[in-house]
């Protein structure tokens, strides 16, 4: 999301960023995960965001997936029903309600309720530990019994559960698995489909090249780019610590994308989260130009 100086939704700049991302040749647009600050949006703002995305992606023939996340089933269904009315939206991504852990009965009831409300809208699970339980193949096989519109998941714990990832992929071949950029190539070697990438909004061509090399089976070249991403993530931890800035997903991802020149607008986030200050952005740009010039936005 993009906020103006009064922390209102800056629709014009947001639309420009969507158009820039489409023009870069990405494979799809995905909104309102952690970086998209889903938790900070009022429903009316959510609807306006979806309208903008649907118009621009529909015009360009760009696949579109909308995150529909909240802390109660009724809130999620309200968003799903709005999204389902947009033919340009190919799927919705949902996380488990995250305040308290769902037990088995509640888990299946949750997915069953979403299916009953919008059975024709494909669902992707934003699978993360923050929800209190991380889902695996056994869980997904049960969920598919009550929600056959589930088509895949964002598997956020691939780094610590890589062996389990491979087993889950083998046991649920009907589902698509997506991982973080620093494991994209390695995971594609065992059957993952791709990544919901934030680095693509650092320099789109870098991530597109990595994916295309992996898809072509040019593993050594692809792994060299993956290694650079991993090194970048590691060294960024030190950079952030030295500058005393926050490292939550929206703060981090917006800061980097603004510093590289990929995203227009300001890096501010809606409170309580605090975007990096302008001096940090200037320092980061200089640091990237010296150490990771391949991640500076080319704009062509």
Question: What does the secondary structure layout of this molecule look like, with pairings?
Answer:
Blueprint: H1 11-23, E1 29-31, H2 43-60, E2 64-67, H3 73-84, E3 91-94, H4 104-117, E4 123-127, H5 137-146, E5 150-155, H6 162-171, E6 176-178, H7 184-188, H8 204-215, H9 219-243, H10 249-260, H11 278-291
Parallel strand pairs: 1-2, 2-3, 3-4, 4-5, 5-6
Helix pairs in contact: 1-2, 3-4, 8-9, 10-11
Describe the model.
The chain is an alpha/beta fold. It has a domain of 101 residues. A 6-stranded parallel sheet has the order 1-2-3-4-5-6. Helix 5 links the parallel strand 4 and strand 5. It is globular. The mean pLDDT is 96.
How would you summarize this macromolecular structure in one to three sentences?
Helix 1 (11-23) runs parallel beside helix 2 (43-60), helix 3 packs parallel to helix 4 and helix 8 (204-215) packs antiparallel against helix 9 (219-243). The model has no long low-confidence stretch (mean pLDDT 96).
Which features characterize this protein?
300 residues; 6 strands; alpha/beta; 11 helices
| Mean residue pLDDT | 96
Radius of gyration: 19 Å
What fraction of the residues are assigned to beta strands by DSSP? 5-15%
Q: Give, in spatial order, the strands making up the sheet with the most strands.
A: 1-2-3-4-5-6
Low-confidence stretches: none
Helix content: 40-55%
What letter string, H or E per element, gives the SSE order? HEHEHEHEHEHEHHHHH
Q: How many individual β-strands?
A: 6
Distance between the termini: 23 Å
Report the major sheet.
Answer: 6 strands, parallel
Q: Choose one word for the global shape.
A: globular
Number of helices in the DSSP assignment:
11
Structural class: alpha/beta
């Amino acid at each position: 999301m993009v906020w103006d100086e009064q922390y209102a939704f800056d629709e014009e700049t947001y639309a420009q960023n969507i158009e820039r991302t489409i023009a870069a040749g990405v494979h799809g647009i995905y909104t309102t995960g952690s970086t998209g600050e889903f938790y900070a949006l009022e429903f009316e703002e959510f609807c306006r965001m979806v309208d903008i995305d649907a118009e621009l992606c529909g015009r360009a023939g760009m696949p579109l997936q909308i995150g529909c996340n909240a802390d109660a089933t009724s809130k999620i269904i309200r968003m799903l029903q709005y999204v389902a009315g947009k033919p340009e939206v190919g799927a919705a991504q949902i996380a488990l309600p995250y305040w308290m852990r769902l037990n088995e009965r509640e888990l299946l009831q949750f997915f069953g309720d979403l299916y009953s409300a919008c059975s024709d809208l494909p669902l992707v699970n934003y699978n993360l530990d923050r929800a209190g339980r991380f889902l695996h193949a056994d869980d997904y096989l049960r969920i598919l019994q009550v929600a056959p519109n589930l088509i895949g998941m964002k598997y956020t714990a691939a780094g610590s559960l890589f062996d389990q990832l491979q087993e889950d992929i083998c046991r649920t071949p009907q589902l698509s698995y997506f991982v973080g950029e620093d494991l994209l190539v390695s995971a594609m070697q065992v059957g993952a489909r791709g990544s919901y990438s934030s680095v693509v909004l650092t320099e789109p061509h870098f991530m597109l090249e990595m994916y295309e090399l992996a898809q072509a089976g040019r593993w050594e070249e692809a792994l060299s780019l993956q290694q650079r991403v991993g090194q970048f993530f590691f060294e960024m931890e030190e950079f952030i610590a030295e500058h005393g800035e926050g490292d939550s997903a929206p703060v981090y991802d917006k800061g980097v994308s603004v510093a590289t020149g990929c995203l227009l607008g300001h890096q501010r986030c809606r409170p309580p989260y605090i975007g990096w200050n302008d001096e940090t952005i200037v320092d980061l740009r200089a640091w990237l130009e010296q150490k990771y010039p391949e991640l500076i936005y080319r704009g062509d």
